[in-house]
């Protein structure tokens, strides 16, 4: 902190060792009040504000920070990608019949903070932050340096085929297929612009914010797969775009208590059903008519390189922990078919890694279709129209594997298998899940062995993780 005797005095620059009186006043402002101000911000204030040719000191005689901030908030709220607050209405099963769906109780969950997906795409793709986006996908191959390999038995030489490299979304097979399908589709009338894919990747994770109390946050955010993962992973890149903050179902118990006149609260099945309804009603709101129109007809944008293109949004991945995948895929939590991507039964899980398991992952993929939609609609009729319970036999027979899903409703007409969106979450499902359990078990084994096994393990760990250089073969990367 600046010495107190120098604050608020008219000490001359020569006495206080400042360059001049203005420098002294700036330093007094920097080192007083809030400690959140940095030296870099002080430099920016001087060079970017005070030295700006349009800066006029006389205009600030009646300046009020609160008033000007309110004007700025109003201006930002008027932008297309501004944050909005909405209430989400869900239907609640009360166990009473409602013929034709008339009179089904509804509960409005307040506090959904969200932004328009289309507005985010327009804002990012038109800004300089998209200058390094990849508009055309490719397939990357690695060719080993030795052109041939000799068969020890026959002496014949065989060429080594190039090896496919999977590293970025824009070099994946899914992106290439989506791009090829787009190019083969019928273009918009009288439009000769280049048609490109906007690859959208979603994440969501309910987070507990404090060690004591119930303060929590449930953010939904998005990255663009057209950008390299090495750029996306940098916090300074600004590549993460927050889409929504999902609210919790609050004050629902009190409302449900007065619903049926019996003073009964919701059971666990009803609560689970309402949470799933909330998640998919939120996605129905996000996948609005504007976004679905862009999904079909594209958005004409002037990209960061100055070229006009017609951009077509496509959702490629959704990463979340298992409980959230259960909500998103509309499946039973650890039910008969617990995987969100396939319908392999729980009793077949111990066969993981076997050839028959690999075959099942292909033949038993979770795919929606007409039967899926019919079963889902029939089950909802039983719950809301006929007053059947969420876990009643007739509903269970229809929804033993899946339930109502907003992604199916919005995207199934485009031929996408929405269950393939739910990719493996390395942090939750491996680093904090399987690997953490295995690593803990291995440490316990070393402790039980005794001697200096832990010390040897630590030495090996430091040596392996401390390597900063590795030899590279002189192979060649090619792309097609």
How would the blueprint of this fold be written?
Blueprint: H1 13-16, H2 21-30, H3 39-50, H4 65-77, E1 84-91, E2 106-114, H5 117-125, E3 140-143, E4 148-150, E5 157-159, E6 163-165, H6 173-184, E7 194-204, E8 207-208, E9 216-217, E10 219-224, H7 229-232, E11 241-245, H8 252-257, H9 268-286, H10 289-297, E12 299-302, E13 308-319, H11 322-329, H12 355-363, H13 370-385, H14 393-398, H15 406-411, H16 426-449, H17 453-465, E14 476-479
Parallel strand pairs: 7-13
Antiparallel strand pairs: 1-2, 2-11, 3-6, 3-14, 4-5, 7-10, 8-9, 10-11, 12-13
Write up this protein.
This protein is an alpha+beta fold. 38% of the residues lie in helices and 16% in strands. It has 17 helices and 14 strands. Strand 4 (148-150) and strand 5 (157-159) form a beta hairpin. It is globular and about 85 Å long. Mean pLDDT is 81; it is low at 1-15 and 464-474.
**Rg over C-alpha atoms, rounded to the nearest angstrom:** 30 Å
**Helix proportion range:** 25-40%
**Regions with little confidence, pLDDT below 50 for 5+ residues:** 1-15, 464-474
The share of residues in extended strands comes to: 15-25%
Q: Can you count the helices?
A: 17
Distance between the termini: 60 Å
User: Quick one: overall form?
Assistant: globular
- Overall average residue pLDDT: 81
Overall structural class, as computed from helix and strand content, comes to alpha+beta
The total count of strands amounts to: 14
């Amino acid at each position: 902190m600046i010495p107190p005797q120098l604050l608020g005095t008219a000490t001359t620059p020569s006495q206080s060792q400042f360059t001049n009186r203005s420098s002294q006043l700036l330093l007094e402002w920097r080192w007083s009040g809030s400690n959140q101000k940095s030296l870099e911000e002080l430099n920016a204030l001087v060079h970017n504000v005070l030295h700006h040719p349009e800066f006029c000191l006389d205009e600030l005689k009646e300046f009020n920070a609160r008033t000007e901030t309110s004007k700025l908030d109003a201006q930002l709220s008027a932008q297309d990608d501004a944050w909005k607050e909405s209430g989400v209405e869900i239907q609640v099963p009360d166990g009473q019949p409602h013929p034709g769906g008339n009179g089904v109780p509804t509960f409005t969950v307040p506090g959904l903070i969200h932004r328009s997906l289309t507005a985010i795409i327009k804002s990012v793709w038109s800004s300089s932050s998209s200058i390094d986006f990849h508009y055309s996908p490719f397939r990357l191959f690695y060719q080993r340096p030795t052109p041939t390999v000799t068969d020890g038995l026959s002496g014949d030489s065989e060429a080594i085929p190039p090896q496919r490299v999977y590293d970025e979304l824009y070099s994946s097979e899914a992106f290439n297929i989506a791009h090829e399908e787009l190019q083969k589709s019928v273009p918009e009338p009288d439009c000769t612009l280049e048609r490109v894919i906007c690859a959208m990747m979603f994440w969501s994770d309910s987070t507990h914010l404090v060690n004591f109390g119930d303060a929590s946050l449930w953010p939904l955010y998005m990255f663009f797969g057209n950008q390299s993962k090495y750029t996306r992973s940098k916090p300074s890149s600004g590549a993460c775009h927050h889409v929504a903050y999902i609210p919790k179902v609050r004050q629902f118990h009190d409302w449900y208590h007065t619903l049926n006149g019996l003073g009964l609260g919701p059971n666990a099945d009803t609560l689970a059903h309402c949470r799933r309804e909330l998640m998919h009603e939120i996605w129905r709101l996000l996948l609005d008519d504007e976004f679905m129109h862009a999904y079909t007809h594209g958005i004409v944008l002037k990209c960061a390189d100055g070229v006009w293109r017609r951009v077509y949004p496509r959702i490629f991945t959704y990463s979340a922990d298992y409980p959230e995948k259960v909500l998103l895929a509309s499946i039973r939590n650890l039910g008969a078919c617990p995987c969100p991507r396939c319908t392999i039964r729980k009793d077949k899980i111990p066969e993981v890694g076997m050839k028959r398991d690999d075959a099942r992952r292909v033949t038993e993929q979770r795919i929606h279709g007409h039967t899926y939609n019919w079963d889902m609609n029939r089950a909802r009729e039983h719950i809301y129209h006929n007053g059947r319970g969420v876990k009643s036999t007739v509903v269970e027979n229809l929804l033993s594997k899946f339930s109502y899903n907003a992604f199916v409703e919005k995207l199934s007409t485009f031929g996408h298998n929405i269950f393939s969106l739910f990719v493996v979450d390395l942090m939750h499902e491996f680093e904090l899940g399987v690997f953490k359990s295995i690593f803990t078990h291995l440490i316990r084994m070393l402790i039980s062995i005794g001697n200096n096994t832990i010390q040897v393990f630590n030495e090996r760990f430091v040596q392996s993780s401390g390597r900063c250089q590795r030899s590279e073969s002189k192979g060649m990367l090619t792309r097609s």
